[in-house]
Amino acid sequence: MTLFTPEDLLRYLYKESSPELSAAIEAALKEDWMLREKLEVLRSSTDHLDKVTVAPRMEVILRVMNYARKTAVQETVSHP
């Protein structure tokens, strides 16, 4: 029985494993229910990773807006 690391299983899930590793994992999955359980746990815990959305913090947005406001005022004053 071959032992697969969590990294091996993650590579398999994301289709980044070598063909040899993929074949070995698939063969092991047919016989090893614990490996199937581990893979299912990884699959369910990584599902949310594909749905991650990133947004800037409100503090960053306010700083950008304040900078834009100051710059706009300075341009207005220097270009009558």
Secondary structure topology:
Layout (H helix, E strand, L loop, with lengths): L5 H8 L5 H13 L1 H14 L11 H21 L2
Helix pairs in contact: 1-3
Q: Mean of residue pLDDT?
A: 88
Count, helices: 4
The total strand number stands at 0
Number of structural domains: 1
**Class of secondary structure makeup:** mainly alpha
Distance between the termini: 80 Å
The gyration radius over C-alpha positions equals 25 Å
Largest sheet: none
Report the helical percentage. over 70%
- Spell out the helices and strands N to C: HHHH
Strand content: under 5%
Low-confidence stretches: none
Looking at the structure, what is the overall shape?
Answer: rod-shaped
Short description:
The chain has helices at residues 6-13, 19-31, 33-46, 58-78.
